[in-house]
Amino acid sequence: MKEQDVVEMLRHYRHDWLNDLQLLLGYAQLGKLDRIENKIQHIIERSNQERGLDRLNIPKTMVWLYQLNWRSESFQLEFQSDTNDQSTIVDDELLLTKIQKIFQILPSYQEEFQQYRGQLIFEKVDHLLHIHLIFDQNWTDLDALKEEMDSLSFIDQVMIDNQLEIVWQQD
């Protein structure tokens, strides 16, 4: 990671924390304790998500995902790690390459001015890491998107029932 990337990351973190603190101050000045509690709970949840990613020991992937959330106007991801708090060995470079391939395809199918909120879930089953990327279904051509995702050799399953869910395993 270059120094400029670190500075940018710190800038985004500082910006997000200042926004959170300003909201908390505003709620406190208005006496809205319920909103303060909700905001603090949201901050704790976000911190726990980041800690879960940190335990996967995937620094390159983490930086890319954080940058996606800060730079993209179209995609925002939340993270969930269900790895039983055990340290997991993952090929960080390979994982990042796979995620980038998916995100090279997705923009071709997004609706104009649509913001996509998704979940990236890491689940440890036996000794394999199962990864689920889940979005709502507001895509221009969901069948074509499914077909293109299915054509990626590492993808195990693409489901489009109530949402778009892309599943693969990572060694």
UniProtKB/TrEMBL annotation:
InterPro entries: Sig_transdc_His_kin_SpoOB (IPR016120), Spo0B_C_sf (IPR037100), SPOB_a (IPR039506). It holds the Pfam family SPOB_a. It comes from the Bacteria. Residues 4-51 form the SpoOB alpha-helical domain. Keywords: Kinase, Phosphoprotein, Transferase. This is Spo0B domain-containing protein. The lineage of its organism: Bacteria, Bacillati, Bacillota, Bacilli, Bacillales.
